[in-house]
Amino acid sequence: MNALNSEAFVLFGQHILWSDMVGNLFGLAALALGWRRSIWTWPVQFMAGLILFGAFFGHLTGSAGKQAVVMLVALYGWWQWQRGKEQGGDGHIAVRFATWRERAAMAAAAAAGTVAVALLFTAYPKLSWDPWPDAYIFVGTIVAMYAQARGMVEFWFAWLLVDVVGVPLNFANGYAFSGFVYVIYGALVLWGLRDWWLRSRQAARPTLEGAPA
Asked: Where are the alpha helices (DSSP H) in 16-125?
């Protein structure tokens, strides 16, 4: 991983690392594939996590740990979409809005998880330079990926909330390319949100009795 952790180029005074750039390009591709409801979003997300794990391991242990969890959730997402890809009627996963109970459960899990992880990072400073925002991004990413695996439109809202903190945190920690990519994520998230929102409404639209199937 030494070559991947070397500097690729300098952009606007920020030093861009190969690992940071390549890993986030994979992450960007994974998000675009998720928008298209392609099951390949998950192996691409797994590769993004693997590369970024190598980028962070050794000096940002908390971020490296986040990528390890991301890889596990990517495996879960692959399994979920394999099971449900026929539900959409077009060979892709069907999308829907979460129930209020599911939303409450995810919000509670995100809040409790953020506090727990932040306290862990605070107790062990070597795990993170910025315990609370890093914990927020860590847990928010997992919640977003879980919602994506379940085909929930709220997946996109969760990514937007992660972006709000992810952009400044990555710039502050010297991962400029991650910061730039998070800005692009924001645009993709808005387009993906619109697409999944419309698809969920089409799926929920009742079929008139006697109408052709």
From this structure: 18-35, 41-56, 61-84, 100-123
